[in-house]
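Consider this pair:
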Amino acid sequence: MVLASGGQDGAICLWDVLTGSRVSHVYGHRGDVTSLVCTTSCVISSGLDDLICIWDRSTGIKLYSIQQEVGCGASLGVISESLLVTGGQGCVSFWDLNFGDLLQTVYLGQSSEGQGVRQLLVLDNAAIVCDFGSELSLVYVPSVLEKLD
């Protein structure tokens, strides 16, 4: 049982929940870590540097990173062991966690400056609820899930 934490210095720490001891301490971002999500095999971090880093959960080694558009790297969600969703400027994007490949981008509407998806929530039925300007959007993309099966 591992817990992940991120800091303003770009550090990501993995902690053993049972003992409270630090298992791993790595630096992956230039500046604040803004989001962390975990699967059973990896930890995914995003930072103010618009970089998303995928880390091996057991070793703390960075597997790869994804450079996002400016201001797009703050919102993350995990749909399955191999599917990541990120918020962007007027869109949400779906990524294959095994290879870091972009699978699909869903546009939410006309994007004007400052209308990035700041928060998103993955629901049990693989639907995504996210903010878009002053609205909430619901996105369900079964075609992405079917391709990964």
Remarks:
- The chain is about 5% helix and 55% strand.
